Structures are given as structure tokens and as C-alpha cells.
Amino acid sequence: MRNIINGISIKKTLSFLLVLMLISGIGTIPAIAAENEETEYRIGESLCNRCESEICECTGEDSAIATYEIAAAWNPTMPLPPRKLTVSELNAWIAQYDQAGISAVELEILRLTNIEREKAGVHPLGIHPDLFRAARFKSQEMMNLGYFDHYSPVYGGPTPLSQLFTGAAYGVGENIVWGYPSLTAAKAVQLWMDSPGHRANILNPSYQSIGIGFVGSYSTGSYAGQMFSLYPPPYEGEVTRFVERLYIEVLGRTYDEGGLHFWSNQLKSGRATGASVAHGFFFSPEFKNRPNIDNDRYLSIIYLTLMDRAPDAGGSAYWGDRLRAGLPREDVFAGFVHSPEFTKLCGSYGIVRGDYTPPRGGMARVFATRLYRTTLQREPDLGGLNFWHNALANGSRTGASAASGFIFSPEMNNRNLKNEEFIEILYNALMGRNSDAGGKSFWVNQLRNGSTRYSVFAGFVYSSEFEQICRDHGIIRGAA
What we know:
Elements: E1 2-5, E2 8-11, E3 14-23, E4 27-30, E5 39-46, H1 87-100, H2 104-119, E6 126-127, H3 129-145, H4 158-166, E7 173-180, H5 185-194, H6 196-203, E8 209-217, E9 221-229, H7 236-251, H8 257-269, H9 274-282, H10 285-288, H11 295-306, H12 313-324, H13 329-337, H14 340-348, H15 362-376, H16 382-394, H17 399-407, H18 410-413, H19 419-431, H20 437-448, H21 453-461, H22 464-472
Parallel strand pairs: 3-5, 6-8
Antiparallel strand pairs: 1-2, 3-4, 5-7, 7-9, 8-9
């Protein structure tokens, strides 16, 4: 099926495509419809005549989500009514938005948009947090009220709606999109780039910043939009200060101009997040080579950098215990990145928090470290620890087989343990705790009555407590 939009021939696999063209002073002109049996999209392109602003060029079209589908969309719990929100209601909506933050879908649309601008030799668009809120609000309102238009039946054109969040009386450009049952970010940007009006918005060198909103549900489909501004992001200087802090707190030195410029631009354009840039500093060779960065010092730095405060006693003890148990620093970093405090910190600097997933099997390393310390009474050698960590993480060894390898190793057998000592080690190694009096007495009596140490070991392996231990450490329990 071939569809022609504004005289340009493009291929679509759509069950229904509606193009709206709103041209200043002319109004709404319905354009082309085409049919197929697959996904339905509606895209609108326009120069909006309803914004009451001389500088506004609103182009509306479809937008979508990376390889995420509806499940990745923000489906808010606070629906928008067909009336203006009160101040308290609007503040509640903003609080809900800020808790969720910019989604991976929206960030992917931004990334793809800036790639198109880069290919055209145009500077990247910066993140405008207030316009991100406005674009999300507009997309949600379209979903809740069941309309698809640049003109909100409640707030009017994109400019007055955006002023709810920006507080500034300047016009915005807009692209909008609806798709059912789902959309992708790549599809959204492709639709926009295939349409001359929307392409003009995306590649407009006068635009300096952008907001993106995406919402959806299985019943309504997906709504998304872009809002463009002629003004730079309001937090542009704050972004640079965020990077400056990383140089000072993490690397212990002042910034170099090239590095500061690179990381700041990555954050402003949405190519990087607060999480990804912070990770780049914390796990750089320069930080790893800093002298005297033991676990306590590492925690002090990560608290100061990612939470902007000194460690509290409880938190420091919690993370310190896990580091001493062998939890990799990558896993600790992930815990801080996903904290409400780091989310709030990123918002204060006008950047996207982002996410970080540590390498798989961090807790498997904790399990292996405990086996070394409880059965062999020594710290693990790096080669051995890496072997058991990887084997447990990839499932080639189970918790039971790893524990058996330690408990019945020549190194442990050479300790010539008494029955009471052997049982205590089973509790420490397999349960991660000291024995209780009743349990220890029971198992010692089993040994005295002729049970083998291996059969007692099997009793521990098949306990519900050890099964839960393995589940908590992300490993397979296995069989004795």
C-alpha cells in the first residue's frame, strides 16, 4: 500500500492513517487515509494557528516507543478530568510525574530525534524538564479525554497548555501521534521524518530544547508528543555543575575543559543520563587507580556524590556489611542510583536520572565469598572467586554443588573438625547464620547415631531455608 502525504510518496503498513494539516490562517485540512490489516496510526502535521503566538510553529504527528510496547508506557493512576485542574490537583499530578521521571521510551525518542538533527548538521536539542511535563500532560489528556488534536478542549493550543508548567509566555512547536495497539520510538521518529511538516520541526535549527511525553494503555492505544522551544533548557548551567561535581568528588580533581564539555553535552542532548555519566566516573580507570579507596571511603564518596550528604550510620552499616560480604561495587552503585534521593538530585540539575543494571550475578559473588570464609576460614583468592562467581551466575554450578565442593574439599577436611564444629559451619555457610540450640543438637545427634556428614549436608541443602537463600542470591539450589 502506498500513501502520499503532501505530494511525497511513502510506504506504510498501517490499517488507518490520518494526516492532519493545520496551517496558520487556514485551519484544519483532512488528508489521506489508507487501509491494511495491521497497526493503526494517526499522525498530524501542522503549523498551528491556535497558539496565539507569533513564534509558534506547531507540527503534530505520531510518536512512539523504542522496542518497548504498551507495557513500557506510563499509564497514570491520576486521570485528567474534562476541566481545568485546581492548583492542588496540578501539584499532585506534577508530584506523580516527578516520582516516575522521564521514561526510557521518551528518552529513546529524544535520542533518535537528536540523531536525525546530527545527520542534518543541526545542534542537538536539550532537555527542557518543564516541557517534558507539559508533553506528558498533553499526551495523557488526549488519552483520558479521547481526542487527538493540537487544540486541547480544556486548555487550548500547545502554548497556553505548556505555560501551566513553564510559567513563560513563549510559543512552542508540537508534534503529536496516536497508535493502536502499540508504537515504537523508531516508528514515531520515522513517521515524523517522512512527513515534511514534522521533519521541519525536528530539524529546525532555531529550536534549542524539547519536551517529550508518552502514555498508553491496551484499551486506548498510545499517545505521544514533542514540544519544541526556541529557548535553551532552563537548567543548562546546572547540568555543567553536575559534571563538575563528579570531577571533584569522584576523581578528586578539577575538570578538564574537553571532558566537561563532552559530558555536559551528552546530558543536555539526552544521549546520556545521570546514572550513565556517574557510572563512567565511578568505574573509570582514573577512579580505580585512586589510592586508599577502601570500602568505607567508597561509601563516603558515593553518598556525597549521588545523595549530596554524608553517610548515615544505618545506611553505612548496611552497605558496608554487603561490601565486606563480597557484593561488587557495581551492585552498590545500582542501589544508590535507583534511590529517591538520587532521583531528586538529578531533577534539581535538570537531567534525566536513568537506570543502571549491574553485571549479572553480584549476589552469587556474595555466596561464594561466604563459602570461602566459613569453610576454609580465609579470604578468597581472586582466580577461585571469579571461577565460582561465574559458575554460579551462569548456572553451570548450583548452590548445592558449590557448597559441596567447599565443605568436602581436602582443604576443609584437613581442619579435622569435630561434629559440633562441622554442624556450626553448615549453619554459617548454607544458612548465613549461627545455629540455634535445638537445631544444632538435633544434627549432632544424627551424626552420633551413625548418619554420615554428607547425609546431614543433604538435609541442609533440601531445607526451605537454604532454598530461600539460593533464591535471594539469584542462584539455582540444585541437588545434594
